[in-house]
Structures are given as C-alpha cells and as structure tokens.
C-alpha cells in the first residue's frame, strides 16, 4: 500500500493510473471536459474494461469537445445527474476507483480549467479497504439519485464463494471446488487470486484453506462486531490519516528541495557571490565619494551603505554555511529513491497515524527518519524503512478506536491539521516559484550558467575598480 499527494501535472497522474486499469474503473466526478482523460476511458472501454461514470448533466459538461455518451457503445454504464435530481445541492464528489484496489480523490475536477487551478489529489495504491469504502460511497450516490446500484466488487462480494470452495476442499470434492473457483477467475487481478489458483492446480488443501482464512481475516475485519456508523467513521479516519501523512511528506519534500537548492547555491556560487557583493559595495562607495551635488552625494552614500550591509550580511551567512559539513550528494536516481522510501516509511510511523499508546515510540522513530531524510542519508532511511516494513510495529490510530464520538473528534482534529498543511504547501510552492527552482531542468547546466554570469559581472566591476 502506498499513499501520495499531487499538486502538479494532475491530469497526467490520473492518465497514468487509468492506462494501467485491467478490469474496471468507477468514477464520480462533477465536471468532465478533459478530452485526454475521456479518450483513455474510451480506449480502455474498447478493450473490455468496465466503466461506471457518475457526472453532472449540465451546461459545463455539455460544452465538452466530446460526447460522454460515446462510452455506452462499449457497454459502459453512465449515470448523469441533472439539476432536477439534485435541487440546490450540486454533486461535488470527485473520486475514481480502479480495479477495486486503487483510489484517486481530491479537489480536482476532470476539466481543462482545473489544470491551471490550485488543486490536489491523493492517490491510494493497493488499498482494497479504502477502495471498498469509495465503492460503497459510489453505490450510495446512485441510490441517492434513484439509480440502481452498480456491480462494484468488494471483499464481501466474493467471500461467500471462497467459503464454499474451502468447504469443498475439506471434503476433497476437487471438481466442485474447481468449478466454484473458475467463477472467480475474472477477479484475479482485483484480489490477487493467483496463489489460490496455483494451490488448486496442485490440490494443496492446506494452502487453500490457509489462504482463504487469511483473506477473510484481512478483508472482513471491519464488519465484525461493529455497527455501520462506527465502521464508516473508522474508514473516514483512516483515509484522513493517510492524507495527513502524504501531505506532511509533500511539505517535507518541498522544504528539502529548497534546502538542497540553497546548499548547491552556496557550494557553487557562494564565494563568487561574496566577491561580487564586496566589489559592488566598493563601487557604490567610490561613486558616493566622487559625487559633487549634496543631494546626489547623500543618495549615493545611502546606496553605498545598503550595498555594504548586503555584502556584510551575505558574507556572515556564507561563513556560517562553510562551518557546516556539506550534505552528501546523491544522483537523481538516488534522490528519487530517497523520497519514495521516506514517503512509504512515513505512512508506517508518522505520529498522526499511530495509536495514542504508541505515539511516543513512533515519534522517536519518525524524528530519526526525517533527520536522515534531510541529511541525504539514503542508507539510514532505507534501514528504517525496511525495519518498519518487516516488523510493522505500530497500530493505526483508526484501528484502536471504537467510540463514534471519539472518532469524530479525531476526524475534526486531522481535518484541521490537513488544512494547515495545505496552507504551508502552497506557501512553499510559491517560494519555489519565486526562486525559479521549478523552471530548472538541469541543475548542472543552471549553476554553470549562473557561475559564468557572476564571473562576467565580477570582471566588469573590476574594470570599474582598477585597484580592486
């Protein structure tokens, strides 16, 4: 399981996951005018992928460059929601479930205009539990708007047949068990049933029994001894926990990107920048001393003092930087791996995602993880990640709560944290834009050009200051 948040190139990210669909795609979206996404859906539908699409039937979607009803030619199911079906209550849902195990959700409508808005999506990969929650939400929307429920597949849907298969195997009725199993073959990709089919070929009764028992235990835990409201709230809390951690990792990544840029700037350009500012301040002082008019002399003296302060301030900061050991340099591939490992490890030990009783221990691990990440310590991040994957020591906060009022309070708390993270992320993105980091394609080339520009500027200043 993996959870990621995206603020840029969202249409491309959605496209990537739609292209990977092999069985079915379930979509609830208000506005849909992005032709590139529609063309992917039409192409996937033509290959046999089932499409269920709930959308607004309004003038915005009517102006799209394509006709959504074209999908019906491939047996897709379309559920348009007209204004008379939802008076005074626009359908704002935006989510997509792919192959019963991947979810895309967030503030992003599938429109051309949304590409230039400040929107975001959260992507949950290989998470059948959260997928089942959204599939139920889709069916609830269909019921709300007087449509018949879609044939969405959850663990509950295939569990009775698995129980039948298990009983036939126990009685060594292999032909009957094989017949029942064949009826689940179309769901192999959704629920990773390959081990079960392999065990059936070998007539390994013990392995079949153990696999089915484990599957039911893993996927049906929520429905035992819990009322529907508590189960729904726990899933909602689980989704929020994943979103908070994903947004937190995004914020950390942006902060690291800025820190890496400043380190590279100091390493590559610090000495030259200090010299340039020093020469600039000297030239400003020279111009002030040579000025004849009192007002001009006063103005130029002020400029000279400001240039001297700038030079002194930069020099002080650069001296402080030189005292610190530089962070190890990583290749682009290792930087990408570092970010991936940190994001995945965060989902396993972030303090906002673990139970109250384990928060102190998890916080200690998370601080070690974040410190290693900030210091480009790939080996330590990998070690912490692998330890967490192998041991999985912490329970999720949503797993330990059963009181609906407590869960609602926790949801409110995490929603507030998420709002704060969004504000911080947007501020960091503005800082990256102002620094021009987002426009750098090749950092080596960028800093080579900056270095040459500084050298040229220093040479020019030296010609104006013969004794420099």
Features:
468 residues; alpha/beta; Endonuclease, Chain A; seven-stranded mixed sheet; 16 helices; 62% helix; elongated
Explain what this protein looks like in three dimensions.
The structure is a single chain. This protein is an alpha/beta fold. Strand 3, helix 3 (59-62) and strand 4 (77-81) form a beta-alpha-beta unit. The protein is elongated, with a radius of gyration of 29 Å. The longest helix is centred in the middle third of the chain and has 63 residues, at 228-290. Among the domains are: 2-152, Endonuclease, Chain A; 155-223, no CATH class. The protein has a 7-stranded mixed β-sheet, sandwiched between helices. Residues 221-226 have low confidence and may be disordered. 62% of the residues lie in helices and 8% in strands. The chain has helices at residues 10-19, 35-46, 59-62, 128-144, 155-170, 174-182, 188-191, 194-201, 205-219, 228-290, 294-323, 332-349, 359-374, 378-391, 404-435, 443-464; strands at 2-6, 24-29, 50-56, 77-81, 94-98, 102-106, 121-125. It contains 16 helices and 7 strands.
């Amino acid at each position: 399981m993996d959870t990621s948040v995206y603020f840029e190139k969202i249409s491309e990210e959605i496209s990537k996951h739609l292209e990977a669909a092999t069985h079915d795609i379930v979509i609830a979206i208000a506005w849909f005018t992005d032709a590139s996404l529609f063309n992917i859906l039409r192409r996937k539908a033509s290959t046999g992928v089932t499409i269920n699409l709930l959308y607004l039937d309004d003038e915005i979607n009517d102006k799209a460059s394509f006709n959504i009803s074209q999908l019906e030619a491939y047996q897709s199911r379309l559920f348009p929601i007209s204004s008379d079906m939802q008076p005074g209550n626009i359908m704002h849902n935006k989510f997509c479930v792919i192959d019963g195990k991947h979810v895309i959700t967030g503030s992003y409508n599938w429109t051309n205009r949304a590409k230039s808005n400040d929107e975001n999506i959260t992507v949950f990969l290989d998470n059948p539990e959260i997928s089942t929650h959204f599939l139920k939400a889709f069916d609830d929307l269909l019921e709300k708007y007087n449509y018949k429920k879609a044939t969405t597949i959850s663990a509950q849907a295939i569990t009775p047949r698995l129980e039948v298969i298990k009983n036939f195997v126990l009685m060594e009725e292999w032909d009957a068990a094989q017949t029942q199993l064949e009826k689940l073959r179309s769901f192999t990709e959704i629920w990773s049933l390959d081990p079960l089919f392999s065990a059936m070929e070998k007539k390994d009764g013990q392995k079949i029994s153990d696999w089915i028992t484990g599957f039911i235990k893993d996927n049906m835990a929520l429905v035992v001894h819990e009322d529907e409201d508590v189960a729904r709230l726990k899933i909602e809390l689980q989704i929020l926990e994943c979103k908070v951690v994903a947004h937190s990792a995004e914020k950390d990544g942006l902060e690291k990107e800025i820190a890496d840029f400043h380190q590279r700037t100091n390493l590559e350009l610090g000495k030259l920048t200090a010299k340039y500012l020093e020469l600039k301040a000297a030239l400003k002082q020279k111009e002030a001393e040579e000025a004849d008019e009192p007002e001009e002399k006063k103005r130029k003296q002020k400029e000279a003092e400001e240039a001297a302060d700038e030079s002194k301030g930069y020099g002080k900061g650069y001296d402080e930087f030189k005292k610190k050991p530089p962070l190890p340099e990583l290749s682009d591939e290792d930087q990408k791996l570092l970010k991936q490992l940190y994001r995945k490890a965060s989902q396993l030990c972030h303090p906002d995602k673990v139970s109250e009783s384990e928060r102190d221990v998890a916080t200690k691990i998370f601080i070690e993880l974040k410190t290693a990440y900030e210091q480009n310590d790939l080996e330590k991040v990998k070690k912490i990640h692998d330890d967490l994957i192998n041991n999985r020591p912490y329970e999720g906060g949503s797993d330990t709560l059963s009181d609906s009022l407590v869960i609602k309070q926790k949801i409110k708390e995490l929603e507030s944290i998420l709002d704060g993270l969004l504000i911080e992320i947007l501020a960091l993105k503005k800082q990256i834009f102002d620094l021009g980091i987002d426009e750098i394609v090749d950092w080596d080339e960028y800093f080579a050009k900056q270095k040459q520009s500084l050298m040229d500027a220093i040479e020019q200043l030296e010609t104006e200051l013969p004794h420099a």
